[in-house]
Amino acid sequence: MSNIANLRNEIAEAIGIKYPNATPHIEYRLLDSTKEDGYTRHLIEYDSYGDKVIAFLLLPEILDKNPAILINHQHNREHHLGKSEVCGLAGNPLQAFGPELAKKGFVVLVPDSICFEERRKNAHGIEPLN
Questions:
Q1: Per-residue b/e over 77-100, b at no fewer than 16 CB within 10 Å?
Q2: Domains of the chain: which residue ranges?
Q3: Which end is more exposed in the chain, N or C (fewer Cβ atoms within 10 Å of the end residue's Cβ)?
Q4: Residues 56/98, Cβ–Cβ less than 8 Å
Q5: 16-58 pLDDT, tens per residue?
């Protein structure tokens, strides 16, 4: 085992984190896929403790033990913008760093937070409430 793995295990043991021996299988449903320049954007749905979560999963063209990152979108009192803003599909272009990370080889997961975009009770998508 490498020094980094040993250190990780020592830190985990010291703070009481237990790693499972096997990676858990996460159930999700593929809703849509779009091929972009340098990556593919998948729209997925998964269950989080009884709550349906809609997210974008950005996969780089080459998959081989890629680093992964979870991106939480900004709040900015714009409840109609969530995962779509981070993926450059709506809102502020300066928030669109998901595609750039995917093009650099990261696997990127961008879920909607509770009360944003697809997880709003009174509306769905990127259209604001009037």
A1: ebbbbbbbbbbbbbbeeebbebbe
A2: 25-119
A3: C
A4: yes
A5: 877 666 666 778 999 999 999 999 999 999 988 888 899 999 9
Token pair of 58, please? 């950005």
**Closest C-alpha among 68, 69, 27, 59 to residue 46:** 27
Question: In angstroms, rounded to a whole number, what is the distance separating the alpha carbons of residues 120 and 130?
Answer: 14
Judging by beta carbons within 10 Å of its beta carbon (0-12, 13-18, 19+), is residue 68 exposed, middle or buried? exposed
| pTM, full prediction | 0.77
Q: Between 3.40.50.1820, 3.30.70.1150, 1.20.1250.20, 3.40.630.30, what CATH number should domain 25-119 receive?
A: 3.40.50.1820
pLDDT digits (tens, 9 = 90+) for 67-98: 999 998 878 777 777 888 899 998 888 989 99
| Whether 73 contacts 116, CB under 8 Å | yes
Q: Where are the alpha helices (DSSP H) in the chain?
A: 3-15, 83-86, 98-103
| Residue 56 host element (H or E) | strand 51-60
